[in-house]
Amino acid sequence: MCGIVGYVGHRPAAEILLEGLRRLEYRGYDSAGVAIQDVQGISIRKKAGRVSELAGLLAEQPCAGSLGIGHTRWATHGPATDVNSHPHVGGNGEVVVVHNGVIENYSTLRDQLQAIGYVFHSATDTEVVAHLVAHHLEEQIRLGKDPQDQQTALDAIELALRKLKGTYGLGILFRDFPDLLIAARLGSPLVVGVGKGEYFLASDASPLVGHTDEVVYLSDHEMVVLTAQGMSLKHRETGARAPSIQTLEQTSQDTDLNGFEHYMLKEIFEQPQTIENAMRGRFEEEEATSRFGGLNLTVQQLRRVDRIVLTACGTSWHAGLVGEYLIEEFARIPVEVEYASELRYRNPPLSENTMVFAITQSGETADTLAALRECQRKGHPTLAICNVVGSTIAREADGGIYLHAGPEVGVASTKAFTSQVTVLTLLALHLGRLRHMSHPAGKRIINNLQAMPEMVRQALKCHDAVKDIAKKYQGISDCLYMGRQFNFPVALEGALKLKEISYIHAEGYPAAEMKHGPIALIDEHTPSIFIVPKGAMYHKVMSNLEEVKARRGPIIAVACEGDKKLEALADDVIYVPEVEDFLQPLVTTIPLQLFAYHMALLRGCNVDRPRNLAKSVTVE
Ligand code: M6R
Q1: Do 286 and 421 share a structural domain?
Q2: Could you report the per-residue pLDDT of 495-543, keeping only the tens digit for each?
Q3: Of the candidates 222, 251, 280, which is a domain's last residue?
Q4: Does residue 615 carry a catalytic annotation?
Q5: Are 201 and 183 in contact (CB under 8 A)?
Q6: Who lines ligand 1 at CB under 6 A?
Q7: What is the CATH number of the domain that holds 221?
Q8: Which domain holds residue 183?
């Protein structure tokens, strides 16, 4: 959460920072601000609300200068007000800071700083950092360090950072060092873009696209000093390191709306292509299996695996649940799906041959990263199923599989889910073929997978029908989602989509569990969405559906094309193509994404920027 940008070079900083913030707005949109350094000193413009509000302010009160930092906020400490917006000023204006992360010991530090005379204006944890750096700067100078020497400023930062507990990605300016832009990282991502006579700083690579494709990722405990002339990198313990420059593959078209009204809708409609991308080059048809370039484990190691832990948050956790069914079915390896936020503090007994997969679109989710590190510490091979190339989790995992879904901008995850499910199907196939799965069974899975982009294209044809159904239900305040086996995680995912973007209370259940409690919620105002495609569970789910109908609950059914029986039973039916049971989540999730999208639109909600949320949750 929160996005940071920075620029130092020869061009006016304001527009570059603003454009960078627009691209990072998915990380938080409670407020936005910039600090720009010029000959007169540091000018700050900040405002509660979207980046567009800040743009308006900058149009009224422009800032000149070719060096600056910017921030878009997802509020953690203190409400979304102008005064709590970043940047924050330390001392008497000597230091200016933007921050992504959480300073856990901020209140102790604030008390100490207040006791020695520092005056706080905001309710944020970040202001502590600004004052702490200013305090150490003043102390260094008092101890006789040269106030003109930039090393004095760097020492002040280092001393301050050693006192912080928590996580930070920081961008720092000093009033009296007008050429310097300094950044430091612990737990919150930062990347430097290397231009010609200019450098860019950002929380992820999206603001760099179009400016440079040469990037340097910062690691934890690293600090980078940027001037228009160059960069220097230093790790707190190991000292200076030569920057290792990597090439960025993203293009600016990847983040265009391409004629769609919202990113979410665009990303829903991209799914035939993104599912294809997740499979591209990964089949070994002769051997009836799949292959991955980056698992970094030998066949022997993979054969020895006796347990798999899939860990993730939110939608990625739902994909993990589908993965559990797939891997247990195809490879007969016991799988557990753990919320990363729980796993990081648990200590489950894991055998020596347990393999851990972190599933994450962004590769930056704080809990998922912490769970991965915890498992790594205990010596387990950790792998990532990740979308964002070069993200922290992708870099820290021992190996992994990329989704190749392209940037997902909408806060509600859509195409990442279906790509994750596709990759997990390939993984289950791979593991199955290393064990007992026959060649014909492997071949059948491949054939079915290869047909999926077309099946999803057909599933998308339900768009108009879903739009009409949403009109009918737009006034509801509760909604239940029910599915069984492979469609139970889809029910959870459908409910999450509706909750997060339309603010309607929704719950997903395994359909048969309903009669153990949730059935009490059924009345004529509470619709139930049943995911009931043809397959092994069809008749079972139909019985559960009848139970709801008997209690006069409105029913929306997601069913296979041509299922006339459901037309008679359900109030509304949405059709998807018939596919094998294990691939059903790829088609049944489509109408649920569209339903959430249209419900949100009809209720006047901001589809791509739902309240209280951010795209990547980089705080605990
Ligand atoms: O980037 P990640 O996949 O690690 O993100 C995990 C969740 O924060 C994410 O899936 C979240 O639940 C989405 N907003 C759901 O649409």
Answers
A1: yes
A2: 999 999 999 999 999 998 988 988 899 999 999 999 999 999 999 999 9
A3: 251
A4: yes
A5: yes
A6: 313-316, 360-362, 365, 368, 411-413, 496, 500, 616-617
A7: 3.60.20.10
A8: 3-101+168-251
> What is the distance in A from the centroid of ligand 1 to the CA of 611?
15
Q: Whose CA is nearest to atom 14 of ligand 1?
A: 412
pLDDT along the chain (620 residues), means of 10: 94 97 89 94 96 96 96 92 97 97 95 98 97 98 96 97 96 97 94 97 92 94 97 94 86 77 97 97 96 92 96 98 98 97 91 94 94 93 93 93 93 97 98 97 98 98 98 97 97 98 96 89 94 94 92 96 91 97 98 98 94 82
The answer to whether residues 521 and 385 belong to one domain is: no
Neighbour count for residue 147 (Cβ, 10 Å): 12
Q: How far is the CA of 556 from the centre of ligand 1 (A)?
A: 26
For the residues of 114-174, what is the DSSP string, one character each? HHTT----SS-SHHHHHHHHHHHHHHHHHTT--TT-HHHHHHHHHHHHHH--B-EEEEEEE
Which atom of ligand 1 is closest in space to residue 314's alpha carbon? 12
Q: Are 187 and 168 in contact (CB under 8 A)?
A: yes
We report the CATH number of the domain holding residue 484 as 3.40.50.10490
429 plus 560 within the same structural domain: no
Q: Do both 309 and 423 map to the same domain?
A: yes
Q: Could you identify the atom of ligand 1 that is nearest to the CA of residue 615?
A: 14
Looking at the structure, do residues 434 and 358 belong to the same domain, yes or no? Answer: yes
- If DSSP states are collapsed to H, E and C, what string results for 515-532? HHCHHHHCCCCCCEEEEC
Active site annotation includes 565: no
